[in-house]
Amino acid sequence: MDASVEQLLVQLHLGSLDASEVFSYPGRNDNWSGVTDTGNAVFVKRLKGNPKESLKRYQRLMSFERLMDRGQSPFPRPEFLGGDEEQRLLVFGMLDDIRSGSELAAEEEFTEATSAEAGRTVAALHRLPFLPEDFPEPDPHPYPPVEDLRSLPLEHYVNATGAFIQGWGLLQRDTALLDGLERLRATEADVAHVPIHGDLRLDQFLATDSALYVNDWEEFRLGDPARDVGAYVGEWLHRAVLRIPSQEADDAFSATLTHEEVVARGSEELTRVLPLIAAFHRGYREGGGPDDDGLVVRATSYAGWHLIDRLIASTKENGRLSAIVRAAAGIGRTALLDPRSFVSTVGLGEAA
């Protein structure tokens, strides 16, 4: 923890962490948490990345906080205590006894009631009133990165793992998939844009005994509400597929499943998560989320993209592209290219 963190805490009259027990958690950003010498429990985050990109992420988060502070906050989020744009530092009140949505899901404690509450929360986000000056510049979402899929930038290639090159090559050669992604991007331009989270994953939900919080607003912007709905659906589909044991074996004594067993296990896992997706969609509609005729179809496409995006994410730190991740991406491709046929399959009811 460097001096700039201490300086910001003092400027915000929050005390010092210098003599405190400080904890840090893994993630793409540096972070520190603890109780200051004046008794304030704080979580401090420094946004990493190139200066231009980290500045945009800082500004998006500040836009979100300003929008939420304009009126009564329609859903819980960690209390924002202050920041330093130049240092890319953000200070939040630290929540007590929290568990992330990912932890709840891993322990099979993410209930239908929790999922419905998540749906109502996302609906409240999508209904946030805003003014044109709240979003003064166009800020299109970078994903799916259609142009990069057609021509990978040199800097990405030079720094890529073998698995990344393998996975990217599979996507680049898939003309039908690239055309489908371009259609999805074009469709987004034609729908009404609302405030969206932009990077909704289960680990962005933080649960306490009394509330469900949403965290990490660095990709906040105007966009298609189907993005957030599809990302949530995609999270559960991805988890369902990854629970099917891979045909790959780490050693000669590892058990493998037959094709029939894989299919049966896949059906079992899908049956397990569909009630959670349905509960989310029910909560979303109850919360008054935008639900135009095409939303569930677009959300199914975005759920498909989420599975493909998870393949890309998995390759950035691994030297090998696993069979189960490829299988998940294949399911995502099917949903993305023919979403209308899979709306009910992924738990979003029937397409209009």
Automatic annotation (TrEMBL):
It comes from the Bacteria. Coiled coil: none annotated. SUPFAM superfamilies: Protein kinase-like (PK-like) (SSF56112). InterPro entries: Aminoglycoside_PTrfase, Kinase-like_dom_sf. Residues 29-233 form the Aminoglycoside phosphotransferase domain. This is Aminoglycoside phosphotransferase domain-containing protein. It comes from Streptomyces niveus (Streptomyces spheroides).
